[in-house]
Amino acid sequence: MTDEALQKQFQTQVRRPASRVACPAPERLLAGAEAGGAEAVRLEVLDHVATCLDCRAEYEVARSLMLAAVAPTARRRWLPYAVAASAVLAAGLLATWQSRGTTAPVLRGDPGAMALWGAEISDSAIQFAWRPAADSRRYTLEVITDVGDVVFSTQTSDTVIVVPSTSLRSGALTWSVLAEREDGTGQRSVVGLLTLP
Ligand SMILES: [Zn+2]
């Protein structure tokens, strides 16, 4: 799909009331949703969609259009990655994450830790999303049981990933993301709670 075709398709799916003058333009939301797009635009858009439910809905439309536009052969493959679970469990305070009107608690690590946008559960998959960390070349998502077993781990250069439900088990889980910087150092995210039916 060409950029122009994608923009047209996006605009036909997105209609806005005049009350949303402060929101980023649809083209900007689309640019922010692009996997290889400019980091500054991406951050700005993600900061906005974190607090604006209208834009968050549009952002998700943009993301799904982007994913649909990528040929299946070009999609990233899952990469297994073994990590120690103990660092992930070093979590502290309880905060609240609001997403699409549903509330899921997020365990917060240190104040400087990377934020998680949330995990959205559908029938067949869970979509994990987190805030981009500066200079990061890749992210490792880990899903961990309450006794510290890593049940799923994968790497991506994106800040959104969809995991099939069949890859995870039911019950109480936590999830966390490790951002790896260009210089080889890393940054750990806060820890999110996830309960799968
Ligand atoms: Zn908005």
Q: What structural category characterises the helix and strand content?
A: alpha+beta
Can you count the helices? 4
**What is the mean pLDDT?**
71
Low-pLDDT sequence parts: 71-109
Tally of DSSP β-strands? 10
Largest sheet: 7 strands, antiparallel
The Rg value, from CA coordinates, equals: 17 Å
SSE inventory with pairings:
Layout lengths: L2 H11 L12 H8 L5 H11 L3 H17 L24 E6 L2 E6 L8 E6 L3 E6 L5 E10 L4 E7 L3 E5 L6 E11 L4 E3 L2 E6 L1
Antiparallel strand pairs: 1-2, 2-10, 3-4, 4-7, 5-6, 5-8, 8-9, 8-10
Helix pairs in contact: 1-4, 2-3, 2-4
Q: Could you explain how this protein is built, in words?
A:
This protein has 197 residues and is α+β, with helices and mostly antiparallel strands. The protein folds into two domains: 3-73, no CATH class; 94-196, Immunoglobulins (Immunoglobulin-like). Helices cover 24% and strands 34% of the residues. It contains four helices and ten strands, in the order H-H-H-H-E-E-E-E-E-E-E-E-E-E. The chain has helices at residues 3-13, 26-33, 39-49, 53-69; strands spanning 94-99, 102-107, 116-121, 125-130, 136-145, 150-156, 160-164, 171-181, 186-188, 191-196. The strands form two sheets. Strands 1, 2, 5, 6, 8, 9 and 10 form a seven-stranded antiparallel β-sheet that branches. Strand 3 and strand 4 form a beta hairpin. Helix 1 (3-13) packs antiparallel against helix 4 (53-69) and helix 2 (26-33) crosses helix 4 (53-69). It is globular. Bound molecules: zinc ion.
